[in-house]
Amino acid sequence: MPMRKILAAAAIAAATLAAHAQTSVPNGPNGDNDSIASLRTYEQMVAALKSSVHTSGGAMRYDVLPWKSNGGREIPYVVVGKGATTALIIAQQHGDEMETSDSAVNLARTLSNNSMASTAIRNALTVIIVPRVNVDGFDGRKADGTLITDSQGRVPPWRQNYDKTFSGAGPVPAFYQRGRGYDINRYHAFRPECPLDNPNFPNITTGVVSCENQDLDSTKPYGLADLGKGNPVPEAKNIRWLADKYKPAVTLDLHHQGTRVNDGKMVTASTLWPTADATAQRLLAVDPKAMTRFNAGQAMAKRVVVIIAQTLAQYPYANLSLYPGGTEPGISRNAYGLLGSGSVLLELRGGIGTKSGGYIQKIGYHASYAVLHELARDAGLNGFDPNQAAVLVKPANGLPPNSGQGESEAITAGTVPEGDSDEHDDHHLGN
Ligand SMILES: [Zn+2]
């Protein structure tokens, strides 16, 4: 069975299980987040966020992002606190990585309670949380209420967003699954003056210095030529919009790979800081401050990684390693690092639909909370030595992070000649 089918089957089983069992979530540090069911539908997620806002006594605010999903749904976020330093936490860019969304919803709820710890965080920080970036890739629905389908008739959850524009034969956009949509996490614009840039046009090397700035409307018909006008991925534009509005000191991107469906308790966590050094170097041609900005973001990210390592050392089932991530600048970890934020990937691996689903949620929650706790104490995280990141976190297989572009296809004019066919497993695995 292809990996994707196994994942899809497991995800459906997990969703069904959760719906019946109302799986509860392990206690957080304040023991108050154990009553929220996991694997929420879109409506349940929105209701959970609004309920938390309602009980927060004004500590949390609900809002929706400027661009709707192509399926026509609003993408919610919450803002907690009024502090001078901002942290941005995003989850579930990939629709089939659902436990991370629960981590984010539970974190929002804890941050808005009246404990001393949460109050201290709210006084020092403004925390922006987007618990489900990719709403369509999780449970997108048609107007008649049935689940969306790809061109093979398969239904979500799946990795990509929903944009079936290029379902026919011929070239497809870079990082695009034919008949389904884009990998959101390759489309984050990374130049300060180009918020609507398509980071893969004309390709991920020369695209570094190009700047496309039309607001491409992907809910309307558009073609390959339009890829040279602007960013075709509304979900990526949303996160960039938040980054511009709030200038986060720290950006945390939560991912989950459910590749080990029979894991039982074991969860493996991976993390990585921005690795787009070569892009920062190229950007110097058009932006003299690019390298300084990137280095600052990378150093901050490494301080965050040290906090994550120290926190997860308390959880023996979270066996932390360095994620072998690529250097593509459109990956959120790299893009927001290039914009100067301490931008960190936290990737959690373990079986979904098993007990480890709860562990995954818990790990994401505790790691995120610890980062916010320390950032509230010291906005510079000066007590954490960035040089310790590579000491504390080692590659699982002894290999360093991917030094290439992590991409086997040549990209020309923002497209690949044939792209993923519906029959092939997605090779853009991981973050
Ligand atoms: Zn992912």
TrEMBL record:
Residues 395-431 are annotated as: Disordered. Gene3D superfamilies: Zn peptidases. Keywords: Signal. Residues 68-262 form the Peptidase M14 domain. Residues 1-21 form the signal peptide. GO terms for molecular function: metallocarboxypeptidase activity; zinc ion binding. GO terms for biological process: proteolysis. This is Peptidase M14 domain-containing protein. It comes from Azohydromonas caseinilytica.
